[in-house]
Amino acid sequence: MKNEDIRKRLQGIECFALDMDGTFYLGGRILEGSMAFIRKVKATGRRVIFLTNNSSKGSWQYVNKLAGMGVTIGKNEILTSGQVAAEYVLKTYPGKRVFLLGNENLRKEMEAMGVVLSEDAPDLCVIGFDTTLDYDKMCKVCDYVRAGLPFVATHPDFNCPTETGFIPDIGAILAFIEASTGRKPDRIVGKPYEEIVDCLKARTGLESGQMAMVGDRLYTDIRTGVDHGLLAVLVLSGETKAEDLERSEIQPELVFENLGGMVPYL
């Protein structure tokens, strides 16, 4: 695509939904070009919302982490799959009790939003990226799922990127549950599914065509844009490499080495 065409495509974007791990930072390190991108977006009167599938951290933790990196944002500028799951449960299962497979951060986030949690008498299950997972928890959640309780997952990611490689994410947990119970989640609410896009629209007051989804992962970030009408922008600073595009059915509209690559076109 010609430079002028790239510039025109980005011209109508009012808000960038920005993935975090592998896109803006990796572990505790801000990726090259990220700060230049943020400065340019703000200078041109646009907005950024950090949109993450990682439900193992609360929104307040992301605010604090970014502040420690020199990026000051408000809580409304962070949207996590854990928050989306809480909103989905409150809307779809009002007054129902939830067995949560998640760590203390996700527990605090959901309780703060009004979700009623129950270990022994739940009406449904919510599965998150549980970094405190143990065998007893897996047995318990499988019992509930096997018994037919509805079950919702925060996101589908198989691995979570770190500075030293990858660690198993919720996709591996869901595979365990399916192998034991024969059931997949009744609903997944994070990227690339519609629930997180609906929450994004509600949060910004914008329509899909006014927003870009920027990320490093084809099957979550880029598919979110492709499936829901957001401009799909891939950065090659994380999971996806240039050669992966050749064999992928999911194709972004724009590709940059990192966030800084967009700066000249904004």
Describe this structure as you would to a colleague:
- The chain is built from ten helices and 15 strands.
- By secondary structure, it is of the alpha/beta class.
- It has two domains: 3-53 and 191-265, HAD superfamily/HAD-like (Rossmann fold); 82-188, Rossmann fold.
- The strands form four sheets. It has a six-stranded parallel β-sheet with strand order 5-4-1-13-14-15, sandwiched between helices.
- A hairpin with a 2-residue loop joins strand 2 (25-26) and strand 3 (29-30).
- Helix 6 (135-146) crosses helix 7.
- The mean pLDDT is 95.
DSSP summary, beta strand count: 15
CATH architecture term of the largest domain: 3-Layer(aba) Sandwich
Rg, Å, rounded: 18 Å
Domains (count):
2
CATH fold group of the largest domain: Rossmann fold
Largest sheet: 6 strands, parallel
Helicity, as a percent range: 25-40%
* Uncertain residue ranges: none
Strand sequence of the main sheet, in spatial order? 5-4-1-13-14-15
> What would you give as the CATH superfamily of the largest domain?
HAD superfamily/HAD-like
Average pLDDT across residues? Answer: 95
Give the H and E element order.
HEEEHEHEHEHEEHEEEHEHEHEHE
What is the beta-strand fraction?
15-25%
CATH class category label of the largest domain: Alpha Beta
First and last CA, distance: 16 Å
Structural class: alpha/beta
Total number of helices: 10
Shape: globular
Binding site for substrate: 191
Active site: 19, 21
GO molecular function: metal ion binding; phosphatase activity
Cofactor: Mg(2+)
Features:
magnesium; Rossmann fold; six-stranded parallel beta sheet; metal ion binding; five-stranded parallel beta sheet; alpha/beta; globular; 2 domains; hydrolase; Acid sugar phosphatase; HAD_sf; 266 residues; 10 helices
